[in-house]
Amino acid sequence: MAGNAEKKQATKNAKILKEIHLISLGVNVITLLIIFLFNRPSNKKPFFFFNIPLVICELIVEKIGRPRFALEKVSGGRIVPKLVSSGEDLSQSGLTEYLFDVIYFTLIQNIVLVILGSNNVWYLSLVIPAFAAYKLYGLFLGGRQLLGGGSDVKGEESASASKEKGQSKRQQKLEKRGQKVRYR
């Protein structure tokens, strides 16, 4: 028997998935109608090519977030669904948040494509890998500082700042000793 927390997460995930699929369906249908009825823009291939990340991200979110049920017989011969897995929490940060960002960004590009009628909108897709590189760079720097690598610029700045405050040498040593990482 699934707990209340799992049931709440399952209903929340199902609601989020339904909303994202309906929004995506609506925007894409309107975009396709405008593209084919008004023949604006004339080249339709970029639309299909640049919507591949949207489809992939939606499939991943669907796979990890969809609650799974199994049919179970209960007394009286009735068959009722039993919650097997509530799926991953779709409101968590990290990779899931990035997937939703890609989905929403692509849908916004589709709306701008309809408004402007130009395939130049797809150059905005370069923002997605640039944002990923920015996040990875921050993650790399955080890990590097955590492992004690990199320069000691911050330590030098704090030592010079403490000298400016008028601390004695003893106070500076105690502060420096407190900043050191201790392994046990």
Automatic annotation (TrEMBL):
<dbReference type="GO" id="GO:0006624">
    <property type="term" value="P:vacuolar protein processing"/>
</dbReference>
<feature type="compositionally biased region" description="Basic and acidic residues">
    <location>
        <begin position="153"/>
        <end position="178"/>
    </location>
</feature>
<feature type="transmembrane region" description="Helical">
    <location>
        <begin position="98"/>
        <end position="116"/>
    </location>
</feature>
<comment type="similarity">
    <text>Belongs to the TMEM208 family.</text>
</comment>
<dbReference type="Pfam" id="PF05620">
    <property type="entry name" value="TMEM208_SND2"/>
</dbReference>
<keyword id="KW-1133">Transmembrane helix</keyword>
<dbReference type="InterPro" id="IPR008506">
    <property type="entry name" value="SND2/TMEM208"/>
</dbReference>
<feature type="transmembrane region" description="Helical">
    <location>
        <begin position="20"/>
        <end position="39"/>
    </location>
</feature>
<keyword id="KW-0472">Membrane</keyword>
<keyword id="KW-0812">Transmembrane</keyword>
<protein>
    <submittedName>
        <fullName>BA75_00238T0</fullName>
    </submittedName>
</protein>
<dbReference type="GO" id="GO:0005789">
    <property type="term" value="C:endoplasmic reticulum membrane"/>
</dbReference>
<dbReference type="GO" id="GO:0005773">
    <property type="term" value="C:vacuole"/>
</dbReference>
<feature type="region of interest" description="Disordered">
    <location>
        <begin position="151"/>
        <end position="184"/>
    </location>
</feature>
<keyword id="KW-0256">Endoplasmic reticulum</keyword>
